[in-house]
């Protein structure tokens, strides 16, 4: 499990560094997001759907 945790943390770090380059966006079914909190909302979504994100990361 320790290896899985480190892999997850490394993947999250990689994804969050990429998020810093993302501008304004709209998610399907949602209105405009507050840019100052967008990264927190994205991380919250990822945490709630961890298995889905893990599968997505592995498919890249």
Automatic annotation (TrEMBL):
Keywords of this entry: Kinase, Transferase
Q: Tell me, what is one Gene Ontology molecular-function annotation carried by this entry?
A: kinase activity
Protein's UniProt name:
Kinase C-binding 1
